[in-house]
Amino acid sequence: MDHTAALVSLATSVPPHQFHQRQVLEAARSILSARYEQFETLASLFANTGIRNRYGVKPIEWYLEPRGWPERTRAFLEGAEALFVNVAQAALARADLAARDVDTVVTVCSTGIATPTLEARLAGKMGFRADVSRVPVFGLGCAGGVSGLSIAGRLAQARPGTNVLLVVLELCTLAVRHDELTKANIVAASLFGDGAAALVLRAGDGGATRIEAAGEKLWPETLDIMGWSVDPEGFGVIFQRTIPDFVAGHLGPAVAEILARMELAASDIDRFVCHPGGSKVITALERALSLDQGMLDHEREIIADYGNMSAPTVLFVLERAVAKGLPRRSLLTALGPGFTASCVALRHAA
Q1: Catalytic residue among 142, 172, 274, 343
Q2: pTM for the whole structure
Q3: Low-confidence residues of the chain, pLDDT below 50?
Q4: How many CB atoms lie within 10 A of CB 223?
């Protein structure tokens, strides 16, 4: 029996409020332009991201008022709980399972704080058993979708036959700031949206797509590339370096190193499934991975339709790739705070 973890089901979900990119630009202009003289110079960022639409847990009017930690946390708990239930129930239904069949829940989120954590708060509403194992994961940022899949896969493999539910959920819009008049804040306002993905994994049986291997690379002295500062008003985004330039210069060798540890080479990969941070990042990914321009078509479609949702975004790309038909071997990649590259190799049997 093959004891590698299989992807039994995959579902995605977004909150109810859709924002068009032009609408977000005008909202940002109304808040920031009078107080930040560089705003109009930076406004072109909104047109250069490749994003058409995004989704948020609150109506756009909510973001026009200053918010502190209590309001942000209330909005996070309300929005995250609804999104968790929606996407988890969809993944379980596609796996033909009930919540009581889940043995382990892995919850990945870096955009809000909840203690008790989300899966505990929702255990009764979902119908999880009292003995369900809970694995909340915080701080992985945009790498969380791939690293979370790796963690869930290892947990499934450790106990063949058990059902592992992975929920990857981010509410990036709740970090919008009125007091931070910086380029990093404008970049964040131009990119980020809310969304969630959920997968059911099981080792020993259950699916044609299996986790073949996983690996990561952490670069030293790169803590300043991406992350959160914890400020009196809320999380503050950290972008201290140009991420597309870092991707173009460093990702290719890192992926080659990770693949070598998997006893694979780039020529063994039939399809890359990447976290698309934005249009410039996608171009940098193609260059770093020696892909022809346009090869990351699913990535461009997802960023256009949903924006950068941080951790779950790559799983939206995977869902689209699955719908189109996975090749024999795919490699999921994502970059996140650390600065870290995370990879998962998937083997698909037609």
Answers
A1: 142
A2: 0.94
A3: none
A4: 13
